[in-house]
Design brief:
This protein has 370 residues and is α/β, with parallel strands linked by helices. 40% of the residues lie in helices and 20% in strands. It is globular and about 65 Å long. The structure holds 1,4-dihydronicotinamide adenine dinucleotide (NAI).
Length: 370
């Protein structure tokens, strides 16, 4: 029997270890056959390369689950509107992708693999084109003016932006952000607030090593600068029907979407107890603690538990936030929201599995590169 998922995985395994080369070849082919496409991409392509592969791997992994596959690709198509992607570009991309896979698949690459990738790409491109078309009432991106820029620690800033037209999103979702310092290089950041009457959006950003967009947002961007924002996405949103108490687990700037969810709760919550574990390396990195404590003083249902993993002098919980949650509880009837680095999210999921928390009660976002 023809199994698309089996053949895709089998053929992907042939090239997986040479992902970088596949991506390099793919872009070279694409730009050669259609040089105008080069202008749609950032000057520096290294970040972009791993993004393409991330998207392919994600699509291939979800092919068994048509609903998730379709949903993911529709949002990817919607998101690609910011790159000025047009339906006719998809054919050029498909041909370049197939040629790259064939080249690196080597002798074991078969006509059957060729066919399955053609079929899969056909489905991928149709879903993406559909997603883009469904979003036609929204602009492909929004301009937003930075109205406030606060340095909160050595390398963390909180920015407030005012979109020139309102952007609708749900608390817990993220948006892509581009600065004029790295044109066409987009990065995802969660909005750190529930929708406000003046439509302003806060972002929590840490400048890290080679994170160009993050560094620019923390160190170069000033009030008055214009950013471009696009495509709110993500499913780490509140279930208003649930009556269970809530545990938020945030690592570093992963606090941003949790803060938005918390603000949303302040609008209607009366009887759900909420614990927020906020982990950071040291006191300096607990960059939003005063604002959280202020919220806790106003809402008796809210308890904040800060924790430092690398600050022995801190007069509070010590250790990784994923471990600190085990010292509290019991957590047998709670909704969980987890946000932080991929390793923090994994560690927390392991802890929660150990505490027998059913996975359906845990929300997190694979806050990845699309
Ligand atoms: N800025 C934003 O809007 C959002 C950011 N994120 C992600 O959140 C992360 C935040 O990173 P940083 O601020 O640099 O945090 P960090 O690396 O300083 O970590 C903060 C805390 O998270 C916990 N942690 C980190 N790694 C862990 C591990 N391997 N095992 C167990 N616990 C661990 C520890 O308690 C640590 O003190 C980034 O990966 C970012 O992509 C996620 C959602 C939104």
């Amino acid at each position: 029997m023809y199994s698309m998922s089996r053949l895709l995985k089998e053929s992907w395994a042939l090239v997986e270890e040479q992902q970088d080369k596949v991506a390099g070849y793919f872009y070279a082919r694409m730009f050669l056959s259609n040089p105008q496409l080069r202008d749609l991409f950032p000057v520096q392509m290294d970040v972009q390369r791993s993004r393409l592969l991330g998207a392919i791997v994600n699509a291939v992994q979800t092919v068994d689950d048509p609903e998730q596959f379709n949903e993911y690709l529709r949002s990817l198509g919607r998101d690609h509107r910011k790159f000025h992607t047009e339906p006719e570009h998809y054919e050029t991309v498909g041909l370049a992708l197939l040629e790259a896979l064939r080249t690196y698949g080597g002798e074991r690459w078969s006509p059957e693999y060729d066919q399955v990738w053609r079929d899969a790409y056909d489905r991928i491109s149709r879903a993406m084109i559909q997603g883009a078309a469904e979003d036609a009432d929204n602009p492909p991106f929004w301009y937003a003016e930075v109205v406030k820029h606060e340095r909160r620690s050595r390398d963390i800033a909180v920015l407030t932006c005012q979109p020139l037209q309102p952007i609708e999103y749900e608390p817990g979702q993220y948006l892509s952000v581009e600065t004029r310092y790295q044109p066409r290089l987009w990065r995802m950041y969660s909005s750190a607030n529930a929708q406000r009457p003046d439509n302003t959006i806060d972002f929590h950003v840490r400048a890290i090593g080679a994170g160009w967009v993050s560094s620019a947002l923390v160190r170069k961007v000033q009030t008055g600068d214009l950013l471009r924002l696009a495509a709110p996405m993500g499913s780490m949103t509140l279930d208003r029907q649930s009556t269970r108490d809530i545990v938020f687990v945030a690592g570093g700037t992963g606090l941003a979407p949790i803060k938005a969810l918390l603000e949303e709760l302040t609008k209607f919550n009366r009887n759900r107890w909420v614990h927020l574990f906020f982990g950071a390396k040291d006191r300096d990195d607990l960059y939003d603690l005063p604002a959280l404590q202020e919220l806790a003083s106003r809402y008796p249902w809210l308890q904040i538990i800060p924790a430092c993993s690398d600050d022995p002098g801190f007069d509070g919980e010590q250790g990784d936030v994923s471990d600190v949650i085990t010292r509290h509880g019991p957590w047998d009837n709670h909704d969980f929201f987890v946000s932080g680095s991929p390793t923090m999210v994994k560690a927390t999921m392991r802890t929660l599995a150990g505490l027998h928390v059913p996975s359906v009660r845990i929300k997190y976002d694979a806050f990845g590169d699309l």
